[in-house]
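TA notes, week 10

Several of you asked for a full example with nothing omitted. So below is the full record: structure tokens for the whole chain, then the designed sequence directly under it. When grading your own attempts, check the secondary structure regions first.
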């Protein structure tokens, strides 16, 4: 259940109380880089796991998704390759970034502005103080049955992802900063000496 997922895409000015689809488009159109803290809860198979960490994104195709608790895991997209480093297992998995993203949630946050090419967007109303939308992947091989995003004041606050096995991942974002200066080195990864490197393609 160690999963890292990520989310974003297009543009139009929008009021603070606009519907979620308009807020998503405005958020993506105005966001080149992004940083945030996150708390992630995965529920499925009678178990629940909670993790937390930080994320950094430089669109298109570059991101750093770092778990600090309860385990240390790092996912880096450098624009061409996706690297997944599990410190506990002393193992690195690498794969083509295009193949890894595809129509995945990562493509929403770090990808280009083609969200409506890959997803069908639908308003689902207001709940818990957030405006929610559902993004249904058009590619049934994306691995996700359903994706929901909650917005407030043009900011992405929460995501909820249901995979093809019925596991539900909920991600809450905090301390979100749009367009911060992020060093280019944060999106580069070199496997540490002594770890196993596996090709995930």
């Amino acid at each position: 259940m160690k999963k890292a997922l990520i989310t974003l895409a297009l543009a139009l000015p929008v009021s603070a109380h606009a519907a979620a689809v308009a807020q998503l488009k405005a958020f993506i159109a105005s966001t080149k880089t992004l940083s945030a803290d996150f708390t992630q809860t995965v529920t499925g198979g009678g178990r629940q796991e909670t993790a937390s960490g930080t994320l950094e994104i430089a669109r298109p195709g570059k991101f750093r998704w770092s778990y600090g608790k309860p385990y240390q895991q790092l996912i880096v997209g450098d624009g061409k390759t996706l690297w997944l480093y599990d410190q506990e297992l002393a193992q690195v998995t690498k794969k083509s970034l295009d193949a890894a993203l595809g129509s995945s949630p990562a493509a929403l946050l770090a990808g280009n502005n083609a969200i409506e090419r890959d997803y069908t967007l639908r308003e689902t109303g207001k709940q818990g103080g957030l405006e929610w939308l559902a993004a249904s992947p058009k590619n049934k091989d994306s691995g996700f049955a359903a994706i929901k995003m909650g917005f407030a004041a043009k900011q992405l606050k929460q995501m909820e992802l249901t995979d093809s096995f019925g596991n539900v991942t909920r991600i809450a974002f905090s301390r979100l900063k749009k367009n911060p200066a992020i060093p280019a080195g944060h999106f580069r990864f070199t496997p540490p000496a002594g770890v196993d490197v596996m090709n995930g393609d």
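The chain has a mean pLDDT of 82. Use that as a sanity check on your answer.
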